[in-house]
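Session log. Operator J.P. requested a structure for one protein chain; no other inputs attached. Running the standard single-chain path with token output.
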Amino acid sequence: MNHQKVYLRNIDTHRKINFDYLWNKFCKHGIAMFKRILFTLILAVVAQGILAQTSRQTQQRLDDLLEQKARCLEQNRTKFFYYIQIYNGKDVNRARQLLRVYLARHPESKAFIKWENPEYKVWTGEYMSILDVEKAMQLLRDEYPNALIVYPRVH
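Structure written below.
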């Protein structure tokens, strides 16, 4: 490039603009700015890659935990139920009679006698959730006013 000074007359201010001066100023400060912008872009790309990898790992971990919870629920499904206790007393004949009457009135329901020293208990149903047992309890409340919800712990 020829080192002659190139001037452009600015119509609004009637000043001369020295392009060599502007080019030198850009080179002095523009390169530093360019480096900062380039560094920022590289940093953003690297950070996005790290976050994407972390996001994939987190998603995989969540999927594993959900699968593990589903397996645990499936295994425990046969062990833990809510029941409705309709009788509690020491008379085994009364418990058997109440069981027969209950099964005659509710043939679709499960019921059994459970003995816990020194009393006999008549338990009905095998309900998976508290909502199900509450619905059944509302239906049995008139027939068995002393009924209560039990949730036994299996050891």
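Operator note: The radius of gyration is 41 Å.
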